[in-house]
Design a protein that fits this description.
30 strands; 25 helices; 748 residues; 5-stranded mixed sheet
């Protein structure tokens, strides 16, 4: 029997279900469509899915694993894109339609009409039924295939929603079907009358990856599945503009409600990656996959005999740059990282891949699996973790670790200031980029004649010693950590090591010296190394130093940058600076480094690359800044939590967070998102990029020295330095400020 309250609850649930907005999703068993169904149900919509056969309904409900309330909001009707029957019932009473159904082949069809006809005719059939039923908005799934075959793509220019594939060209059948179907949809909408007329929004996703909810192979994930097959011996040179299926579904649902989305197309791409690099990413995660590139000519030859290979021939060695700005702006769309999409795809496919298969080459064999789980062989991805050293505790041999502390900080900032306005006026192509608004960088300090990496490092070391209780003769180890090692202008000094020159210049004659390089995490890496040497009792005291003369990268970029998505745009934020820090044994129970930790996510190493510049002295830097930011935000919270847990702290216990200074907007947004992931916000987030720009490996210690000099800290404050160096290197240093404050004139 039901109690009165149970009956009321059941009635309320029924009333809520009746009032919920109905959305029809076509082809509901499809890869993208099923994710759309799940997101709609999560958002509280009623969903009616169309299926060619209702026999699929039990499998779909099982895959979605719905609770009773959500299951009651889901229903299905039978409808086929090639037939009129079923469509009036499918859209009856619906306010919105997600038209996702469209064939995506694993191989080219016998005739292009096998794709074109159902795509075009099915789209028009859905639109006619929706218009007759009074549907207010249709969100249609198209593809970047309807965009990329155009003259701008041939010239290597970035593409946006105004671009269309040229049907006068010889297009692959799938690409032609998507272009024709989308063109037909827009023509249909343009011919409508009524007040208000039915609205159309079109999604143009890229290469869609992600886990299949039904656990079946599909054309989108075919390239990942082939990598995981033990007989895969090589990888074609394909450029993949990737997007995660879960993010595609989120964009579809967002487009239902976004008022400004009506009448617009949206490119859905999170990042681009060459297929061999994608294979290396999967391999780095612990999967045994082929990474060797197959020559284009070999793929073309195979394509003459194998239909699946013929499908990719038009895309060989062709990179396409697409802008997702409209989706991120109007839909507030924030796609997940490439790495997450790829590895989630690999994990899902590997979980249902027959195990124990072997591949043979060069007379031998290798096993497709990496780990043994009982009697089964299973592909298991490796996960990242921190190389973490707490400030106190026992060493591996059982001896107590010696605590360490930052004894003094020094910096050398060039006097010459270059404002962002001045720099942008010097650009050769006048790209009309509002760099200061985008990045928050108002100015940066740059080297004048006679200044370079060496002089900045020496100046910082001397400033550090001036605020220390020690002299140069007390330094037992000196580590130079700069990326740029320029001496006498833009002359890169390889030998002797720059650390030796710095040691001689400051008179640290007793010190062991060497150079390291770890991108923008260099100074923090040097502190990590000294911390390890000291806590094990090898030395008592050391200095880490860096001089970064990198403004030449910005000057070279100014001669080449043409638009806001240029990979050299980040170079325009760079400034020059030198910093130094003395690390020593701590003699206090509280005044010591709590945690020093690092994790390397090497699969992201190509997000920032340097090369000799073709337009001026020095180098050029090519950065996928937005991708680095996305990866850092998505990958770092578990690592940061690991470091915080080791220190016995929460993110909200940190008084000052000093992140790598890239751009003010990225820092503020990133700190907020990380705080949300960690469940609490830090008290203060330090931003100095507006004044100094991005000074690479010195950026954290430039901020530290500035705040020490301005007496911003008070005794007992806890500081957390976070590096997100390209590579991707995630570094953490947590420590309190106590005795160090006295040497910078602090009266508290």
């Amino acid at each position: 029997m039901l109690s009165g309250s149970d009956t009321l609850s059941k009635k309320n649930r029924g009333r809520m279900m009746e009032n919920a907005t109905l959305v029809t999703v076509t082809g509901a068993s499809g890869f993208i469509a099923l994710h759309c169904v799940r997101e709609l149900l999560r958002e509280g919509y009623r969903v009616r899915g169309t299926l060619r056969s209702l026999d699929k309904e039990p499998a779909i409900r099982s895959a979605l694993a719905l609770d009773d309330e959500a299951a009651a909001r889901l229903s299905f009707v039978a409808a086929n894109l090639l037939e009129d029957d079923g469509w009036p019932a499918a859209v009856d009473g619906a306010r919105y339609v997600l038209h996702v159904a469209s064939p995506l082949p694993l191989a080219p069809p016998e005739h292009e009409d096998d794709l074109v006809r159902p795509a075009r005719d099915g789209t028009l059939r859905v639109l006619r039924a929706a218009q007759a039923a009074g549907v207010s908005r249709v969100v249609m799934t198209s593809s970047i295939a309807a965009i990329v075959h155009c003259h701008k793509s041939d010239r290597g220019e970035p593409l946006d929603e105004s671009d269309w594939s040229d049907l006068s060209r010889s297009l692959p059948a799938y690409d032609k079907s998507k272009t024709i179907a989308e063109r037909a949809a827009w023509r249909f909408i343009e011919g409508l009358s009524g007040d208000p007329p039915m609205e159309l929004v079109v999604m143009n996703p890229g290469f869609v990856l992600g886990p299949s909810l039904l656990g079946v192979d599909n054309a989108s994930n075919e390239l990942i599945r082939k990598l995981l097959q033990p007989y895969a011996l090589g990888v074609p040179h394909l450029y993949l503009p990737v997007v995660d299926v879960r993010d595609v579904a989120l964009a579809h649902v967002a487009a239902l409600r976004a008022h400004d989305a009506a009448g617009k197309r949206f490119i859905l791409v999170s990042d681009g990656c060459w297929y061999p690099e994608l294979a290396k990413l999967i391999k780095a995660a612990g999967y045994n996959v082929a990474t060797r590139r197959v020559p284009d000519w070999a793929v073309r030859v195979v394509g003459r005999f194998v239909k699946a290979a013929a499908l990719i021939v038009p895309w060989l060695s062709k990179a396409v740059e697409l802008s997702n700005e409209q989706a991120t702006t109007l839909l507030d769309w924030r796609p997940r990282s490439l790495r997450e999409s790829v590895l989630d795809t690999a994990k899902e496919i590997a979980s249902r891949t027959p195990q124990g298969r072997r591949a043979h080459f060069s007379g031998g064999s290798f096993d497709a699996s990496l780990f043994h789980m009982g009697a089964e062989r299973q592909l298991v991805p490796l996960e990242h973790g921190m190389i973490l050293e707490a400030g106190v505790g026992a060493l591996a041999d059982g001896r107590p670790a010696i605590p360490t502390r930052l004894e003094s900080i020094g910096s050398k900032i060039p006097e010459r200031i270059l404002t962002t306005q001045e720099l942008m006026k010097s650009t050769r192509h006048h790209p009309h980029i509002e760099l200061e608004r985008l990045t928050g960088v108002h100015q940066r300090h740059v080297c004048s004649e006679g200044e370079d990496s060496f002089t900045l490092a020496v100046g910082a070391a001397r400033d550090c010693l001036a605020h220390s209780r020690h002299g140069p003769e007390d330094i037992e180890m000196l580590i130079n950590c700069s990326i740029s090692r320029y001496k006498d202008g833009l002359r890169h000094q390889w030998e002797p090591p720059l650390s030796l020159s710095i040691k001689d210049a400051i008179g640290a004659n007793k010190a062991i010296s060497f150079d390291i390089s770890n991108a923008c995490a260099g100074m923090m890496t040097g502190v990590f190394i000294l911390h390890d040497f000291i806590r094990r009792g090898v030395i008592r005291r050391g200095m880490v130093v860096s001089g970064e003369y990198i403004s030449s990268l910005g000057q070279n970029a100014a001669k080449q940058v043409r638009w806001v998505l240029s990979k050299q745009l980040a170079s325009l934020t760079l400034g020059d600076a030198g910093t130094a820090a003395i690390v020593e044994r701590a003699d206090s129970d509280t005044d010591h480094i709590s945690v020093a930790a690092f994790a390397t996510l090497s699969e992201h190493s190509r997000l920032c690359l340097g090369a000799p510049s073709p337009v001026g002295p020095g180098g050029s830097m090519f950065t996928k800044a937005r991708t680095i930011h996305k990866v850092a935000i998505s990958e770092s919270p578990p690592l940061l939590k690991e470091a915080l847990d080791a220190a016995g702290l929460g993110f909200g216990d940190i008084d000052y967070v000093i992140p790598h200074q890239t751009s003010a907007r990225a820092i503020e947004r990133g700190a907020k998102e990380i705080g949300e992931r960690l469940g609490m916000q830090a008290k203060r987030v330090v931003v100095t990029v507006n004044e100094f720009g991005n000074t690479s490996s010195t950026t954290h210690f430039v901020a530290l020295r500035k705040y020490l000099g301005e007496k911003r800290f008070k005794k007992g404050d806890t500081i957390m330095l976070i590096s997100f160096a390209s590579g991707l290197e995630v570094g953490v240093l947590i420590f309190p400020v106590e005795e160090i404050l006295d040497r910078y004139g602090n009266e508290d």
